[in-house]
Amino acid sequence: MTPAARKCLDQLRTLLRPASIATAGGFRPPSDPVTSWFCRGVGQPGENLPQWNGRPMIPILQIRIDELPYVPEQLAHLALIVVFFDMEDLPFDKPHGEGWVIREYTSTDGLVPLPEATHDFKPFPIRWTRVEDDAPYREGACALPIDMGALDDDEAAEKAFYDDFQRYDQTKVGGYPTEVQSDVGVEDFVFQIGSEEKVHLIWVDAGIAYFFRTPDGAWRWACEFY
């Protein structure tokens, strides 16, 4: 391994990110609905499921922020978010509010279960685990202040880049986005929703949905799949 490649990998080790990793089920569902769930959601009294093209959107993911062992700064001022999607016609390249929406709540007081929509998903409560060592894939690493070109034509360094670093591909809050095909960007990344087999939630073909929040509070999403 060349000295430049070794320096690149050493620098990457200083840029690993913490994340909260989601595990679906495996424990008795809580009686309190205001917790983290796949495919169940709450809202203010009188709120209903958001609609798109005459269909109710599905609450794909609910995150109670104080349950997260690691909280990104973009979520620190919130108490709970609920992610809704029109899963019949995925809104690729659509802005927030068109086929998908994230509802934000600054308090959990008074939140109640939303009406259940008809869908084929299997709801599960979520348990979160903190990790400290989430690493980017190649395209994401190229956005960092390190010379990834030093790994080119260095077989040992390239192998170490993939073998010596941990990457978490499932649903997670924080960390780096898990690339499937290309670079989705690391700036403003907040969380991703993976294809969760237990939940019967699949993004096209074993894909991943990524969610980004700008400093002014604007959400955007992207999706990659095989």
Task: Provide an overview of this structure.
The chain is mainly beta. The protein has a single domain (3-224), classed as YwqG-like (Hypothetical protein YwqG fold, Roll), CATH 2.30.320.10. The chain is built from 3 helices and 14 strands. Strands 8-7-6-2-10-1-11-12-13-14 form a 10-stranded antiparallel sheet, with no helix packed on it. Strand 4 (51-52) and strand 5 (55-56) form a beta hairpin.
Q: On the 0-100 scale, what is the average pLDDT?
A: 93
How big a fraction of the residues is strand? 25-35%
Examine the coordinates and then state which fold CATH places here, giving the name of the CATH topology.
Hypothetical protein YwqG fold
Shape: elongated
Just give the CATH class: Mainly Beta
Quaternary form: single chain
Stretches with pLDDT under 50, minimum 5 residues? none
Structure classification: mainly beta
Q: Architecture, CATH level 2?
A: Roll
Major beta sheet, strand line-up: 8-7-6-2-10-1-11-12-13-14
Report the radius of gyration as a whole number of Å: 19 Å
Question: How many separate domains make up the residues?
Answer: 1
CATH superfamily: YwqG-like
Task: Give a summary of the structure in a few sentences.
The protein has 226 residues and is mainly beta. It contains 3 helices and 14 strands.
Task: Please render the helix and strand layout as text.
Elements: H1 3-13, E1 17-24, E2 37-38, E3 42-43, E4 51-52, E5 55-56, E6 58-64, E7 80-85, E8 100-105, E9 112-113, E10 124-134, H2 138-141, H3 155-163, E11 172-174, E12 189-194, E13 208-213, E14 219-224
Antiparallel strand pairs: 1-10, 1-11, 2-6, 2-10, 3-9, 4-5, 6-7, 7-8, 11-12, 12-13, 13-14
